[in-house]
Amino acid sequence: MPEPTLLSPKPPAPIPEAVKPDVDAVVEAIVYLYTESRRLTKEVAARYGLTGPQLTVVKMLEALGDLSLSRLSEKIRAQNSTVTGIVDRMEREGLVTRARSAVDRRVVHIRLTPKGARLAREVPVEPMEIVRQVLLGLSEDDTRELLRILTKLARGVKALVDHEAGPPPPPDAPGAPDAPDAPEP
Amino acid sequence: MPEPTLLSPKPPAPIPEAVKPDVDAVVEAIVYLYTESRRLTKEVAARYGLTGPQLTVVKMLEALGDLSLSRLSEKIRAQNSTVTGIVDRMEREGLVTRARSAVDRRVVHIRLTPKGARLAREVPVEPMEIVRQVLLGLSEDDTRELLRILTKLARGVKALVDHEAGPPPPPDAPGAPDAPDAPEP
DNA sequence: CGCGAAATGTTCGCATGCGAAACATTCGTC
DNA sequence: GACGAATGTTTCGCATGCGAACATTTCGCG
Predict the structure, then answer these.
(1) Which nucleotides on chain C have any atom < 7 A from a protein Cβ?
(2) Residue B108: φ, ψ to 5°
(3) Nearest protein residue, CA measured to C1' of D12
(4) Residues of A in contact with B33 (CB under 8 A)
(5) SS3 category, B156
(6) CB crowding B152-169: b at 16 or more within 10 Å, else e
(7) What residues contact A61, with CB distance under 8 A and at least 6 apart?
């Protein structure tokens, strides 16, 4: 059966009446968790003179060390043009520095300054912290089950997205299609 | 425990270190699903001359009829000041109209114009459509299970958030507080 | 070697998105 | 029935957030 593609002119498959309330509720919950977490992160960040995305960047650089701007963009799921602006303002605040790579002169390495590193250690929360906290209150079974189904969902979305983008390369990849973001060395 | 989390259960609970990778992965998946869905919604909306939020507003007004600006803000989980701008641009495009309430002159009713209503019928997708589509591919059991745990998560987050706002009652409330947003008549 | 494609960042214009303050209107209360 | 609190909306300043166009640099491949 030809996948109903979101980007094709054809309408996607209609949603059966029976499950629609559940689907609506799941979507509602995801939107709620994301937006509420972002709001809280922003609030906490403000207490340290940071914006939400700036807190995310600081924590990311603390965890992973120096990153190129592109790499940083992937990690925080934003476009390069967005991150350029964020880094501009952080550089102005003395939180990070830009350094052209000697190896590949297209690349710019973003690095925490001592001030930025101090802030990273000082701020006690991660992005989406509130979701993390509540997750710790769930049973291990629930957490694992949640992860199992969310992973299915994410892979399904990724498959659809890749499908729309262009003819997929032969599905002979060793593992399953990439998880949203595979952890790496 | 790094933090006095109000929700941690019993002593035999696992070390947080053990579940941290799962927590990280769940958070990662939620962020992925939200941001990817938003990106796709925006892309589809653009084909109809709309922005992502404008599509959301059009669909909301089609489903619920006229709404006050405040009500609309709640529904799309944005602040009034944000929605004022969105409505400004939609009004300029002839998609909606503003009408002062005769009953309460503080209130502004937002209403779809015929052009806006036509667009609403024409656009075949809902916000977060891709998540909806993939959810339909899951088993009913998985969907229900996902909803069950996400609801727990959302209620836990809501409890924590409300908790911050007011004086701290012990976190042992028997009936969970309101769901993030109950469907209404 | 050489040239076009691809990768990396930046700039630009526009649309959110938010909080604080300003404003208008209504409500509660004495 | 007046006044202060509460509610609804807008304005303002700033920080994302994105796509398109562009400059620079590297890569691929004959």
Answers:
(1) 7-13, 15-21, 24-27
(2) -115, 125
(3) B81
(4) 30, 150, 153-154, 157
(5) helix
(6) bbbbbbbbbeeeeeeeee
(7) A67, A72, A96, A110, A111, A112, A116, A120
The whole-angstrom separation of Cα B9 and Cα A166 is 48
A157, B130 contact by CB (below 8 A): yes
Write out A125-170 in H/E/C secondary structure. CCCCHHHHHHHHHCCHHHHHHHHHHHHHHHHHHHHHHHHHHCCCCC
Write out the two tokens for B130. Answer: 């891709």
Please tell me whether any atom of strand C lies within 7 Å of the Cβ of B49: no
Sheet with A96-100, edge to edge strand ranges: A67-68, A108-112, A96-100
| pTM of the shown model | 0.84
| SS3 of residue B14 by DSSP | coil
Contact B135, A23 (CB under 8 A): yes
Digits of tens for pLDDT over chain A (185 positions)?
Answer: 444 445 444 455 555 667 788 999 999 999 999 999 999 999 999 999 999 999 999 999 999 999 999 999 999 999 999 999 999 999 999 999 999 999 999 999 999 999 999 999 999 999 999 999 999 999 999 999 999 999 999 999 999 888 766 544 443 333 334 444 433 33
Residue by residue, what is the 3-state secondary structure of A49-79?
A: CCCHHHHHHHHHHHHHCCEEHHHHHHHCCCC
Q: Give buried/exposed letters for A154-185 (b at 16+ CB in 10 A, else e).
A: bbbbbbbbeeeeeeeeeeeeeeeeebbbeeee
